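FORM 7B: Structural annotation worksheet

SECTION A. Query
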Amino acid sequence: MSEVQWKPEYELGVVTMDDTHREFIDLLNRLEQCPPAEALERFDALLDHTVAHFWQEDVWMDKSDFPPLYCHRGEHERVLDVLKEVRRLIAAGDEGIILTLLRELPLWFDNHAATMDAALAGHIERTGFVAERISAEAAPA
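SECTION B. Predicted structure
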């Protein structure tokens, strides 16, 4: 596997969103670089971040009256379901699932950032909504 690089097209112009996406990529890279003994701990950090990341976007979409809210939120829910299953498999000793995740999750992120998140960023810009960082502690567990 190779490290996921930040791409100029990931820059969506909403500073809080861009920062959260950089953190996501950093956590993916940390998982990719860790020894197997640290995989579950590193994966949990990625999962916790992703729960808070998606929840933050969901709150923004709700508060800004983002028209395709349910489509975007539904994708978040499906990805979280997959990540929770991956976590279960890692905990059960399936180290190979991490390689699959590290191959597939960056591909998903490329598409999601370019489509759904770009649409949200455009909506935020057009409406003047202030997309502030919401404390990760406020996110559901």
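SECTION C. Observations
The helical segments are 15-33, 39-63, 69-91, 96-127. Residues 96-127 form the longest helix (32 residues).

SECTION D. Sign-off
Analyst initials: ____
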